[in-house]
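The following record pairs a protein chain with its ligand, iron/sulfur cluster.
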Amino acid sequence: MKKQGKAIAMISGGLDSTLALAMVRAQGVEVKAINFYTGFCITETQRRKGGRQDGTMPQNEALRAAADLEIEIEYIDISGQQYLDMVLNPKYGYGANANPCVDCRIFMMKKAKEVMEREGADFIFTGEVLGQRPKSQRRDTLWAIEKESGLKGRLVRPLSAKLLPPSIPEQEGILDRARLGDISGRGRTRQIAMAGELGLADWPQPAGGCCFLTDESFSRKFFDILGQREAAGEPRTIDRDDVVLMTTGRHFRISPTVKLIVGRTEVENGTLETYAGATRARLAARSHTGPVALVEGVATWEERLLAARILARYGKGKDQPTVEIEWRDPDGGVETLVVEPERDEARVEQLRI
Ligand code: SF4
C-alpha cells in the first residue's frame, strides 16, 4: 500500500504551481502551502499602497488559489535586511534585470526547509518546469538550488519529475513516479491541456511577472541608486526606504549625486510626504496645485532650479510663464523658487531614470 506523506507546496497562484499542487494532492499527500513576501512583490506593494494607479485593488494570487483549493497557507515575510543583502550580492548573479533568481530561490528554499522540519513534512515541491526559464530552471541550476538549500532529494518538481533523478519521497513510496509529469521547456500547451482536464478555467500571469526585480524600469532605478552611492563614496547598499521610493513616482537623475522623485498620484504624494525630512528635501508648487517631490543629495543652485522646473511641468501651472515652488530643506529651511516650467521634452526624458 502507498505510504501517506505530508508536503510543503511553494505556490504563487499561477498555473504551474496550481497544477503541481493538484498532482501531489491526487496522490493522497497532505499538503500545506507557503508563499513569500520579498518586499519586491508588485501586487503586494500595490495593495500596501492602497491599490493600482487606476484605483483597482489587486488580489494576492497565492492566497486566492489557496482559498479556492481549500488548502492551508502560510504567508512568510522574508523582506528583511538579510534578503536585501542577497539581492545586492547574488552569488549566481542577476538575470536580465535586477533579479537574482537563483540566489532568491535558494534563500526561499532554506526558509521552506525550516517550515518542512517544523511541520514534520516529508518534502517540498514547486511548480518549476525544467528549461522554462533560461537561467533559474536549467537542469544544473535546479540541482544547485536543491543542494545549496540543504534539500537534497527532498525538493520535488512534480511537473518535470520524470526528467529528473528520483527524489526521496518517490523512493520511499510517498509519491508514485509514474503519475508525475515529464514536461520541459517554455511552451505551455501541455499545462493548459492539463488545466482543462482538471477543470481549472482561470489563472494569473506567470509568477516572474509579479516581481519588481524583473521589471526593466525598476531595475534601472535599482542600479542607479547603487551607482549614486558609489559616486558619493557611500557603502554600496540599499534599505527598505529605498525600495519603497523606487516603486513610487517618476525618477530623474539631476546629477551623479542628486535625484528628483515626482509623485504621480495622490497616494504617491502621500507616500513621498512621509519620506521628506531626515535626508530629503521636499518640493511642491505654492502658486498652483501639483504633485509633491523629493530631492535626494545636496543640490547646487543650478540643480535646484532644474529640479523645480521639472516639478513645475507636472502641475496645474505647466502652461503658465512661471510657477512658485516651495523648497523645504531637510533641516527645515524654506525658500521659494520662481521658475518657468521645463518645456524641453527631450531634455526631461534624457534625465529620466
Ligand atoms: S522573480 Fe523575483 S521572487 Fe521570483 S525568483 Fe526571481 S527574484 Fe525571486
